[in-house]
């Protein structure tokens, strides 16, 4: 028999608070793992005796597995129940984290990272869905504010935590630190969340849909990850992967839309509020990640920052977001969410445009201040957008909608990362060639050699200066384009109809 709609009445206020903190913590752990391993790849590669290029498979394997599993969340929640799925996923995530830390070969750590990604994929949408189930409607805005803070803070803190652990302890501990958090979340789920378990529906397994999903997402993710190293479509293998992803995606769409029991419920896109919201989310997160990808690398490569200080400069966005998120959570039900979303996105776009004027003379606060200011706009974007998207679908579709929303965000991040790094690299080469064509370095070289530098040292100094300038010019171009994408996304959200009443999403299955 189905649970009552008012599932929040089954928990006491104290239990709701503890459960909410546990779910937010679980989301933070999974989001943190998206970036914590990035700065540790050189340490892992050196320890395992592999090349840095091989080491990137540690990141790729996790991203592919998570991208495949996230859209399956709705089907898995129906099949096993939301609380059971959360508990099983957390148990698997903790187990594979332990095995990742114990890995001694590339094959073992890649296999364990795949397991970690498969188990971690449902945790983000499930934490979101369960939060909506255990809190009453008037508190959900504030609760989603807490959830949004963990989503924003995780990627910013990942490089800091990963760099500090790798430099001062051992790379193994970037995985071991997940174990106590996983144990706490499992215990809390078993003791607190059982009363809000959802009904289990024994649906047939859509094996063809699952195979098509794995095929096209795997092909796309691998293409995005190795494309830059293989000259993109100049390499037949990249062309083949692109064709496989494109054809697989088209067949997948046709199959899932005509299948009686699809593995991924694409019918949620019939709700214009959900569709416009998730595409706004995808565009914004893609543009937002331009800064997360570029800024730490620029600070370390060109500006002489350590991994820890580079991560710290980028992390100020999370600090200011934590201050404003509770306030946004309180007013989200009182204002037109489209206006809040559009204002937040425009704010972030304006800050991104501010960054497009950096120079090589930028000091720490020149870099950190825009991050701090941007944080005030992030909750205005994240919290109302979640309310709009999940409030636009039917209650029984909430788990599928949450999974699809997180899937599109993950996919946007993957695509954005590849596009941004490629554009940044190509822009550097173009800018460098333009600078070299207009330079007249003879006087500078003569001055440097008169100061005791050899001819080769003088040339290298000039070359380094040109490279540094080309890097920052190209970065500014990327930020300018990212700002334009933000402004377009701010307009896109107005395609959604104005929410006329509060939609109860607590009965997600």
UniProtKB/TrEMBL annotation:
Pfam entry (one): MFS_1
Taxonomic classification: Bacteria, Pseudomonadati, Pseudomonadota, Alphaproteobacteria, Sphingomonadales
Protein name from the UniProt record: DHA2 family efflux MFS transporter permease subunit
Family: Belongs to the major facilitator superfamily. EmrB family.
A molecular function GO annotation: transmembrane transporter activity
Membrane topology according to the record: Multi-pass membrane protein
Keywords assigned by UniProt, alphabetized: Cell membrane, Membrane, Transmembrane, Transmembrane helix, Transport
Organism (species): Sphingobium indicum
InterPro entries: EmrB-like, MFS, MFS_dom, MFS_trans_sf
One GO CC annotation: plasma membrane
TM helices/strands, residue ranges: 17-37, 57-77, 89-108, 114-132, 144-165, 171-193, 205-224, 236-257, 278-299, 305-325, 337-356, 376-394, 406-425, 477-496
Domain Major facilitator superfamily (MFS) profile: 19-501
Gene3D superfamilies from the UniProt entry: MFS general substrate transporter like domains, Multidrug resistance protein D
PROSITE patterns, A to Z: MFS
Subcellular location: Cell membrane
């Amino acid at each position: 028999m189905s649970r009552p709609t008012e599932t929040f009445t089954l928990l006491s206020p104290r239990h709701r608070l503890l459960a909410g903190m546990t779910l937010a913590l679980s989301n933070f752990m999974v989001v943190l793992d998206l970036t914590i391993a990035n700065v540790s790849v050189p340490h892992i590669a050196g320890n395992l005796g592999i090349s840095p290029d091989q080491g990137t498979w540690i990141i790729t394997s996790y991203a592919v597995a998570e991208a495949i599993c996230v859209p399956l969340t709705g089907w898995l929640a129906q099949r096993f129940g939301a609380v059971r799925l959360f508990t099983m996923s957390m148990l698997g995530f903790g187990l594979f984290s332990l095995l990742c830390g114990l890995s001694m070969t590339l094959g073992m750590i890649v296999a364990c990272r795949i397991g970690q990604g498969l188990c971690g994929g449902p945790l983000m949408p499930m934490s979101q869905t369960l939060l909506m189930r255990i809190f009453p409607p008037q508190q959900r805005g504030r609760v989603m504010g807490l959830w949004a803070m963990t989503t924003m803070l995780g990627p910013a803190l990942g490089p800091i935590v990963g760099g500090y652990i790798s430099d001062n302890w051992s790379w193994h501990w970037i995985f071991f630190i997940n174990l106590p958090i996983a144990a706490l979340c499992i215990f809390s789920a078993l003791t607190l969340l059982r009363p809000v378990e959802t009904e289990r529906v024994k649906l047939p397994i859509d094996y063809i849909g699952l195979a098509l999903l794995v095929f096209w997402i795997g092909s796309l993710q691998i293409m995005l990850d190795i494309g830059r190293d293989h000259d993109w479509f100049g390499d037949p293998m990249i062309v083949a992967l692109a064709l496989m992803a494109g054809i697989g995606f088209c067949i997948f769409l046709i199959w899932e839309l005509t299948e009686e029991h699809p593995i991924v419920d694409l019918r949620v896109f019939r709700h214009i509020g959900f569709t416009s919201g998730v595409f706004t989310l995808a565009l914004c997160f893609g543009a937002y990640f331009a800064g997360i990808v570029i800024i730490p690398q620029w600070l370390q490569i060109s500006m002489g920052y350590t991994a820890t200080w580079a991560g710290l400069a980028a992390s100020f966005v999370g600090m200011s977001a934590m201050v404003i998120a509770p306030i946004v959570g309180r007013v989200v039900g009182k204002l037109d969410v489209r206006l809040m979303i559009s204002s937040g996105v425009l704010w972030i776009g304006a800050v991104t445009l501010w960054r497009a004027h950096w120079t090589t003379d930028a000091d720490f606060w020149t870099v950190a201040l825009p991050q701090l200011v941007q944080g005030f706009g992030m909750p205005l974007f994240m919290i109302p957008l979640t309310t709009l998207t999940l409030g636009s679908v039917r209650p029984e579709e909430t788990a599928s909608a949450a999974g699809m929303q997180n899937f599109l965000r993950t996919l946007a991040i993957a695509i954005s990362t590849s596009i941004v790094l490629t554009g940044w690299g190509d822009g550097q080469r173009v800018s460098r060639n333009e600078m070299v064509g207009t330079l007249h370095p003879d006087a500078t070289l003569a001055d440097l050699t008169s100061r005791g530098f050899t001819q080769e040292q003088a040339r290298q100094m000039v070359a380094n200066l040109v490279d540094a300038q080309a890097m920052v010019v190209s970065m500014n171009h990327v930020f300018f384009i990212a700002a334009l994408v933000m402004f377009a996304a701010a307009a896109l959200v107005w395609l959604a109809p104005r929410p006329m009443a509060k939609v109860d999403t607590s009965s997600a299955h």
